[in-house]
Every structure is written in C-alpha cells, then in structure tokens.
Amino acid sequence: MRILCLNGPNLNRLGKREKEAYGTFTLAELEQDLKAVAETAGVTLECRQSNHEGELIDWIHGAEDEEMAGIILNAGAYTHTSVAIRDAIASVKVPVIEVHISNIHAREEFRHHSYIAPVAAGQIAGFGQDVYELALHAFILKRKREQG
C-alpha cells in the first residue's frame, strides 16, 4: 500500500511560524514521525511539499498513475481559495483525506470554508501533527475492511 502525503504553501515554515496555531515541530520532524508509523504498518509513504499550486495539482494527477492508495493533503491556504486543486481531486479516483493542524473552524471566518471538503473522503482538523497519523490510520483501516 502506497500513500502520498502532500503539504501546501507555508508548511515548510512549520516550527518557525505561528507556533500558537501550528506548534513547534518542523515539517521534517512531522514527515520522519509519519514515515515511522507507516513503516510499522507496512505502508510506503511518500511526502512532498510545495508552495506552488500547479505542482500540487500535478502531484494529485500523478497519484493515479503512481497507483497511490490515497492522498493525505494539507493544502494550507489553498484549502480556502483553490478551485483548481478541488477540480484536480475530483478528476482522480485516488481518495483524499484533507488535514489541518489547527482547527480551521475555530479560527478566522475565511478559514471555515473548504473547497476541498466536498470532494475529499474526509477531513481531520485541530489535533496538531496527529492529524496526519489519524489520516494514515483511516487509510489502513479502509484497506483492512476491503480485504475482509
């Protein structure tokens, strides 16, 4: 089972930016921890980050060709602005779980709307870096149920 973890704009600044909302861990630490969990579960995890909308879209499209079982996506601010990323998700058969480190529904009003949520398999928000592990476990549970 292969899972793709995509992080959007400004997530490369984890550990440096708005620590009260995003914590003190870095993206490298988050990815290292998540890869360890994935390895223990027998899952291959590939992590990528970009500040560029088009690159994220290309990776979403490519996930189908790469036969990924799922995508864990923190689109950052693109969650609230990008119809293009929404359309990319809708165009592939690979399920996407939308994640947010902070509780977007408890923050500024503009963060309450997600273009991604209507086309995602689910959304997990507000549990810090654990949102990634929760999404990974959701894909693992889905696989177990499908296998009977």
Automatic annotation (TrEMBL):
Q: Provide the binding site for substrate.
A: 74, 80, 87, 101-102, 111
**Keyword Amino-acid biosynthesis tagged:** yes
Q: What keywords are annotated for this sequence in UniProt?
A: Amino-acid biosynthesis, Aromatic amino acid biosynthesis, Lyase
Per UniProt, what is one Pfam family of this protein?
DHquinase_II
Q: In its UniProt record, which GO terms are filed under biological process? A: amino acid biosynthetic process; aromatic amino acid family biosynthetic process; chorismate biosynthetic process; quinate catabolic process
Enzyme category, top tier: lyase
Q: Name one GO molecular function term.
A: 3-dehydroquinate dehydratase activity
Do you know which PROSITE patterns this protein is assigned to? Answer: DEHYDROQUINASE_II
Its pathway is:
Metabolic intermediate biosynthesis; chorismate biosynthesis; chorismate from D-erythrose 4-phosphate and phosphoenolpyruvate: step 3/7
Catalytic residue positions: 22 (proton acceptor), 100 (proton donor)
| Residues under site feature: Transition state stabilizer | 17
Tell me which domain of life the UniProt entry assigns to the organism this sequence originates from: Bacteria
Q: What is its EC number?
A: 4.2.1.10
Catalytic reaction(s) noted = 3-dehydroquinate = 3-dehydroshikimate + H2O
Known role: Catalyzes a trans-dehydration via an enolate intermediate.
Q: Which family does it belong to?
A: Belongs to the type-II 3-dehydroquinase family.
Q: How does it assemble?
A: Homododecamer.
Question: Per its record, how is this protein called by name?
Answer: 3-dehydroquinate dehydratase
Task: Give the species this sequence originates from.
Answer: Planococcus lenghuensis
Query: Gene encoding it?
Result: aroQ
